[in-house]
Model the fold of this input.
Amino acid sequence: MIDIWFLTALILMIWIALSIIRVAAGPTAADRVVGLDTINTIVVALMIILSVAYNQLIYVDIAIVYALLSFVSTLYIAKYLEGGF
Amino acid sequence: MLWWELVIYIFVAIGLTFNGLGVIGLLRFPDVYTRLHAATKATTFGSIFTSLAVIGWAFAQLISTGNSWNLTLALHTFFAIICLLLTNPVGAHAIARAAHRSGVKPKQAVVDRLEEVKE
Done:
């Protein structure tokens, strides 16, 4: 029952690596932000999975804080793209 | 195989499938808005299902071993799902609004109502 969590974490890392392609090759800046937002969501899921895999509760707390902070950073980048502060 | 193990496997499979579909949509769709449509909704759904698998595992461990650490894990994971549900749609809306205001046009679109409404 432990091995399924490490396998899930590996597949989620593959999805993150595929999203990095879009961040690197996006034609416009908005494409890169979309890729970054996707990576943030998958990292939260990955940390919750790793919490079970390593039996450490601190990963879930870090996932909560990461979700909130990445939300703030996404809003700031969107505000910067929009222009006109 | 016990029935709760089957439920956990199904939840993990649904979550991984939808995360993968979101990433494939992010790579394959033509412009920003369709990429945002695929990536945000599919990855939010998939992440919720992988987290639900963790909650199911924690409750199964709580019933079988009686360790209260698992109840803490389930509650914190539930709070992480709430944070994900609250923050993800707002972020996607902000990105779409910023992309339209910064001049990115939707490809192959016939009607752009937001352009007509905008002053």
